[in-house]
Design brief:
The complex is a heterodimer of chains A (429) and B (311). With 429 residues, chain A is an alpha/beta fold. Chain A is built from ten helices and 19 strands. The longest helix of chain A is centred in the middle third of the chain and has 18 residues. In chain B, 40% of the residues are buried. In chain B, helix 4 packs across helix 8, helix 5 packs antiparallel against helix 10 and helix 9 runs antiparallel to helix 10. The N terminus of chain B is likely disordered. The chains are: A alpha/beta (429), B mainly alpha (311). At the A-B interface, helix 1, helix 4, strand 4, helix 5 and helix 8 of A face helix 1, strand 1, helix 3, helix 7 and helix 14 of B.
Chain lengths: 429, 311
């Protein structure tokens, strides 16, 4: 068993939401300034009691008592929804910010790629930026000089190396930045979705380079991504962060499944309150359910069957012709379709109070797998969503021997069936 | 048709980054329970300064200096000549307005030399102060993504300003030698040996004051505006455009309280042979500089860890 190279113990990080907001920034400044001078809190003196209590409820724990060990040579995938604490964890590990409580112990040099090309200066030439960026990432000048030719050759932009990077195309810029990063050779590498940029050919070249380094010294990698497919492919071990806690730690496939599978769909999903949602308000979605044409609530549908998505929403004010929508996604988070009433010029007229809307798919041409539905409403085309419930409910599509002439279709054939017409003739014999 | 086509990039990733199989780099070292290279804790003590880190990143400091220098005058016609034009024009303006029109005393020194010596020294201090005071606000982008000792930025600013000061000092020396050969009433004194110390003090004072401001601007942005004219006002409490000897007694303490005063006066005395020089004043200035710098480093160090949460 290889040794532990990262040991995280009871790590917690608290943020004050108010720091971002306009009015509270002023409060915060007054407060800190007073604290700094050793004076009492001005807010408590001015009698803004409400403002102060707001303040305290706005403190959130981005990380809450996280303990974790990473062993040498492990490739650990970190997954979680937005705001689950992934970035905070990475920031603490990269020493960009300090934890509120707890401790992290690390063995070996950490390089974090939260971004490629950090510190690139547009006026400087490619050569100068390689040195600058390398030094920012923790290399010494002599280390960079030793690898310089390799870096430049790797980036494939030899002829432009003495051109200011502001004249580069964005592709060239990323290539050069990647090349520097790829030649870092730390013991521990923290990667935050930066692999998602750059063209595929160059990316695989870049990773090939990492592979050769990896083989030699067994580098440890922490990988954060929203792309479940690549997390699953890259990592053996995965952890799921949920509201600042590690809710799962173990085999990556199971971690991905945990992350992706929202709660079992009940006969009727009435409990949408705890789901992540966004929107400007004015309407609130309460429930969602899936029905067959017979009106029975179901979670499993056969390919080719009719499927009804029924959503109940409450409109807090009177609105004219709002747009109803349901986004369909695969269990891997890939968007299948943005279905909206406005595509069919459906107009409900004046609405207020509780509304139940129904989207009927006459024949579900989705391939067998689990799908996620996310209902939303907005006031008019192009307007921000009033409410949008993420991962509200799931339904499963199963194979149907009566559909497509009984052909065997599985998830590996794609996401959705396209209706096609065929013709063929022998043109030479 | 195979269904693997779309997964090409992913299989690349796997083969590239699959778990390491090589030998662990530490395997041949005896394992001790607290054999950690880095421990990340909540705010460490005020005096946990990691100045060693700064030394390890010295290459970065020099690259920052180079960046600042190279990028500043890119796409300008006169380039580094601006370093000379600016103090030259200021000196001429001061000579005309304060020297000839307002008829302020220059302690019997040639006006050009008097003003230029003050301006050259003052510029170094004020540039150090204003530039370092923007450390956090103008580097938020980098600071939010990568760790390196944050002090590398202000230190690099002090060094790049030192280069600028060197060029401006060259201009001053050119005038100085010209006036010397013309037989003006100027003469270098033994205090010239103090020149390296003066330079160090100006840099340290500018750095100290600058990082105090930059540490506080992360929470108190108003300071940024205060610095703009604060430095200008500060110049009038420093004997840049007037000699200390001509200040009426009731205002003298204000001027004397300014730690820059002894530095400028000593600077002038060293080169020109006239001016108020006393070891006590210089010692006071050195002590004040040390306190301000120490306070600055402590504050800066304290703020840098949580800076990203407040910006």
């Amino acid at each position: 068993m290889s040794e532990t190279v990262i040991q995280i113990e009871n790590l917690s990080k608290q943020y004050r939401l108010g720091v971002i907001g306009g009015k509270r920034l002023v409060d915060d400044i007054n407060r800190q300034w007073a604290k700094f001078r050793g004076k009492p809190d001005p807010l408590s003196k001015v009698g803004k009691a409400s403002s102060r209590s707001d303040f305290e409820t706005d403190e959130i724990w981005a990380l809450n008592d996280v303990s974790l060990e990473v062993r040498q040579g492990e490739v650990l995938g970190i997954i979680g929804r937005n705001g689950a604490g992934k970035s905070t964890l990475l920031k603490i590990l990269s020493r960009v910010t300090a934890p509120t409580r707890g401790e992290v112990r690390v063995k070996g040099r950490i390089a974090s790629l939260l971004e490629v090309g950090t510190g690139f200066h547009p006026e400087l030439t490619g050569r100068e930026n390689v040195f600058l960026n390398g030094a920012i990432l923790g290399m010494t000048k002599s280390e960079i000089r030793r690898r310089f030719d390799e870096i430049v050759e790797f980036s494939g932009i030899q002829q432009f190396i003495d051109t200011p990077v502001k004249r580069y195309s964005s592709g060239m810029y990323v290539r050069l930045a990647f090349s520097v990063a790829a030649h870092l050779e730390p013991e521990i590498l923290i990667v935050d979705e930066v692999l998602a940029v750059g063209d595929a050919a160059f990316r695989s070249k870049c990773l090939g380079k990492m592979q050769s380094v990896n083989r030699e010294d067994g580098r440890t990698v922490l990988f954060v991504s929203h792309d479940m497919a690549s997390v699953e492919a890259l990592c053996k071990r995965g952890i799921v962060l949920e509201a600042g806690d590690v809710s799962f730690d173990g085999d990556v496939t199971e971690a991905v499944n945990r992350y992706l599978r929202p709660r079992e769909v009940q006969a009727e999903a009435n409990e949408l309150e705890d789901r992540p949602r966004e929107g400007i308000g004015g309407a609130r979605i309460h429930s969602i359910r899936f029905e067959g044409d017979d009106g029975n609530v179901r979670t499993h549908f056969r390919m080719g069957e009719p499927l009804n998505v029924v959503v109940k929403a409450n409109f807090e004010k009177t609105m004219r012709n709002p747009i109803f929508g349901v986004n369909l996604l695969t269990d891997r988070g890939v968007m299948v379709a943005d279905c909206r009433s406005s595509h069919y010029q459906y107009q409900i007229g004046q609405v207020t109070g509780t509304v139940e809307y129904r989207m009927r798919i006459p024949s579900v041409s989705l391939y067998p797998r689990t799908y996620v539905a996310e209902p939303w409403v907005c006031e008019s085309e192009g307007a921000p969503d009033l409410d949008w419930v993420h991962e509200a409910a799931t339904f499963a599509i199963t194979a149907n021997p009566d559909y497509l002439g009984g052909a065997t279709v599985t998830a590996s054939h794609g996401v959705t069936h396209l209706s096609t017409e065929w013709a063929a003739e022998v043109i030479a014999n | 048709m195979s269904d693997k086509g779309s997964n090409l990039a992913i299989s690349d990733l796997v083969s590239a980054m699959g778990e390491g199989t090589g030998k662990p780099p530490f395997s041949d070292q005896p394992q001790e329970p607290d054999d950690w290279t880095l421990v990340i804790r909540p705010k460490s003590g005020w005096f946990d300064l990691h100045l060693g880190d700064l030394w390890r990143y010295r290459d970065l400091v020099m690259l920052f200096v180079r960046r600042d220098f190279v990028s500043l005058y890119k796409q300008t016609i006169l380039g580094p000549l601006w370093f000379i034009i600016q103090p030259l024009l200021t000196t001429i303006t001061f000579t005309i307005i304060f020297g000839n029109i307002a008829q302020l005393s220059t302690d019997g020194l040639p006006k050009m030399l008097f003003y230029m010596s003050g301006i050259t020294a003052w510029n170094y201090f004020s540039d150090c102060l204003t530039k370092t005071s923007e450390t956090f606000s103008s580097n938020a982008g980098i600071f939010g993504k990568v760790y390196f000792p944050r002090l590398a930025v202000p230190v690099s600013i002090i060094i790049s300003n030192l280069i600028k000061f060197g060029i401006q000092l060259g201009l001053f020396l050119a005038f100085y030698i010209y006036f010397l050969t013309q037989g003006s009433a100027v003469q270098p004194t033994a205090a010239l040996w103090l020149f390296p110390l003066l330079l160090l003090m100006m840099g340290a004072l500018g750095l100290g004051a600058g990082i105090i401001v930059s540490s506080m601007t992360t929470r108190y942005r108003d300071l940024r505006f205060l610095v703009q004219f604060g430095v200008q006002l500060l110049m009038y409490t420093t004997p840049v455009i007037f000699p200390l000897s001509k200040i009426p007694d009731q205002y003298r303490w204000i001027i004397l309280a300014n730690p820059m005063t002894p530095i400028i006066e000593t600077f002038r005395y060293a080169f020109l042979g006239t001016g108020t020089f006393s070891w006590e004043m210089l010692a006071y200035s050195a002590a004040a500089t040390a306190v301000i710098l120490a306070l600055g480093v402590l504050l800066f160090n304290h703020v840098e860890k949580t800076f990203m949460d407040t910006v």
